[in-house]
Amino acid sequence: GATYQRLMDKAFEGQIGRNIEVYVDDLVVKSYTEAEMMRDIEETFCILRKINMKLNPKKCSFGVAEGVFLGYVEVAIGGTVFDKGRTDLCSILKKNLDIFTWQPSDMTGVPRSIAEHRLNIQEGYSLARQKNRGQAPKRAKAIQVEVQKLVEAKIMREVYYNDWLSNPVM
């Protein structure tokens, strides 16, 4: 969660607060006019392509007049899209089909230079053993299924650290 949030903050630092809001895996492009919306979507797609990140088309909405972000109602995210705007938006989406992932194997991964896990340990501090944390059975099963898909697509692999650190799947 935190590593992914740092990735998103770093990748979109020039847009956050100006024309985009990011929280973990929620990404909202906000614009006042159709022309701005088209420009802002193009800018966002350019960054997504640069960091090799893909979008799930089932979770995308474009040209939304208002929506919910983190449980709060956001007004005028994109504004109403009229016929010309709809045509322009379709053109942008067709031109950027590579930004979307249609199956797990399409997600090639984020460059290591951006998302690599590093231990940040200062001199003078001792290491602490992490407690095992569980998930609710239903959630744990869903997580196992999704992780298995990513492992089979060779996007993730298990890495092993010393016994003082938990063994996350990366």
Automatic annotation (TrEMBL):
Gene3D superfamilies: 3.30.70.270, HIV Type 1 Reverse Transcriptase, subunit A, domain 1 (3.10.10.10)
Segments forming domain Reverse transcriptase: 2-72
Domain of life: Eukaryota
UniProt xrefs under Pfam families: RVT_1
InterPro entries, alphabetized: DNA/RNA_pol_sf, Rev_trsase/Diguanyl_cyclase, RNA-dir_DNA_polymerase, RT_dom
Keywords for the protein's UniProt record, in alphabetical order: Nucleotidyltransferase, RNA-directed DNA polymerase, Transferase
Entry keyword Transferase: yes
Gene Ontology MF terms in the entry: RNA-directed DNA polymerase activity
Entry protein name: Reverse transcriptase domain-containing protein
Organism from which the protein derives: Tanacetum cinerariifolium
